[in-house]
């Protein structure tokens, strides 16, 4: 799906005028939305990302099953227009609290919690073919980066080699009009699932010794982190290597970084990095690096179910991934990145990662 080139203010006005026209014509007012479910998602083999299909639905006011969501969608749209007119930004958390109220003469709230408002906002993004950042909304910062690059953020230029132990906090909006890159001399980007492991590598100055950028999303990376990875690869042509736990959840995090997610399939062109490679951890590393068996974790039924599901995903069909997932199931265990510390506190930075990168021991 191509990004909309129209001003979000204009598309909001078009949507609002269409609803007003329906009301004035005594018609059932409605909003056309892309269907954001698995049935309307496909894997684009050519571009190697998850994409949203062409199926649409109409959310209408007089359909009892739609009425609440219709009301919520208009509340979010109206608030977005208001903050855009005021030329200010707010957080998606603030948006929830701004719009939460009890409907007059009822015991009903407009929103019960943020798990209701966030999906409505995503619906609006998809309907308008835009980004929440273009609607002047932002999320909490989640993720850090360090290494040989300068970041221009507004009037400030941040040297990411001089950020101490904390690194530079990645904001939710890293679009080119907000964040620019300068003086990057790195050879690649290393994306690390665990914040604790990122801190270990930062303390060891791994980025300096190996001339790279180290980035963590602190678990499942937020949209800002994934967009940052996408831009570093596409604009600076930096290879991307992803380091996660050796379990189904770590592998899933990698897959989201690589080709996007089903839930945000309408943004995969901006959030996915199809050329990313998986550097580890794998269950096969236990034997290769002589990792003690007592630091592995026995698979539970949830792990097994998830792993078997992943064997059927198109993006895990390459033989290397089929072998790794089946090996994990056969071995009956998983392991966390911190398990490498059983070989020594600096084993990951002095032996494991350098060997993997030098020998190009990646999974596709």
The assigned CATH architecture of the largest domain is 3-Layer(aba) Sandwich
Poorly predicted ranges (pLDDT <50, ≥5 residues)?
Answer: none
| Number of discrete helical segments | 13
Mean pLDDT: 94
The radius of gyration computed from the alpha-carbon positions, rounded to a whole number of angstroms, is 23 Å
**Largest pleated sheet:** 6 strands, mixed
Structural class comes to alpha/beta
Q: Terminal Cα separation, in Å?
A: 25 Å
Counted up, domains total 2
Please state the oligomeric state of the protein chains shown.
single chain
Beta strand count: 17
Strand order of the largest sheet: 10-7-13-12-14-15
Give a short summary of the structure.
With about 375 residues, the protein is α/β, with parallel strands linked by helices. It has helices spanning about 10-25, 65-85, 90-100, 115-130, 195-205, 205-210, 225-235, 250-260, 270, 285-290, 300-310, 320-330, 345-360; strands at about 30-35, 40-45, 50, 55-60, 90, 135-140, 145, 150-155, 155-160, 170, 180, 190, 215, 240-245, 275-280, 295-300, 335. Strands 10-7-13-12-14-15 form a six-stranded mixed sheet, with helices on both faces. It has a three-stranded antiparallel sheet with strand order 9-8-11, with no helix packed on it. Strands 1-4 form a two-stranded antiparallel sheet.
């Amino acid at each position: 799906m191509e990004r909309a080139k129209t001003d979000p203010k204009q598309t909001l006005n078009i949507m609002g005028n269409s609803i007003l026209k329906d009301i004035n014509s005594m018609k059932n007012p409605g909003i056309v939305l892309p269907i954001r479910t698995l049935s309307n998602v496909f894997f684009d083999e050519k571009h190697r990302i998850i994409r949203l299909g062409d199926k649409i639905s109409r959310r209408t006011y007089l359909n009892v099953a739609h009425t609440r969501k219709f009301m919520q969608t208009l509340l979010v749209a109206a608030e977005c227009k208001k903050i855009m007119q005021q030329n200010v930004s707010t957080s998606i958390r603030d948006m929830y609290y701004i719009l939460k109220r009890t409907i007059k003469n009822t015991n009903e709230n407009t929103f019960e919690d943020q798990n209701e408002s966030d999906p409505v906002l995503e619906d609006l993004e998809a309907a308008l073919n835009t980004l929440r950042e273009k609607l002047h909304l932002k999320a909490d910062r989640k993720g850090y980066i360090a290494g040989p690059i300068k970041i221009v953020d507004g009037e400030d230029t941040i040297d990411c080699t001089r950020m101490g132990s904390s690194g530079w906090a990645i904001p939710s909006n890293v679009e080119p009009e907000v964040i620019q890159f300068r003086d990057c001399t790195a050879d690649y980007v290393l994306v690390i699932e665990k914040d604790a492991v990122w801190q270990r590598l930062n303390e060891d100055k791994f980025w300096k010794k190996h001339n790279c950028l180290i980035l963590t999303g602190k678990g499942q990376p937020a949209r800002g982190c994934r967009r940052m990875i996408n831009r570093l690869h596409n604009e600076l042509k930096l290879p991307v290597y992803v380091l996660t736990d050796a379990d189904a959840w770590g592998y899933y995090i990698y897959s989201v970084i690589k080709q996007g997610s089903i839930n945000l399939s309408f943004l995969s062109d901006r959030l996915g990095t199809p050329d990313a490679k998986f550097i580890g951890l794998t269950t096969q590393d236990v034997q290769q690096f002589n990792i003690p068996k007592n630091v592995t974790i026995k698979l539970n039924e949830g792990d097994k179910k998830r792993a078997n599901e992943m064997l059927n995903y198109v993006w895990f069909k390459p033989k290397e991934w089929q072998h790794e997932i089946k090996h994990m199931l056969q071995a009956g265990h998983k392991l966390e990145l911190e398990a490498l510390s059983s070989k020594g506190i600096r084993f990951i930075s002095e032996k494991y990662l350098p060997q993997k990168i030098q020998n190009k021991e990646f999974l596709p």
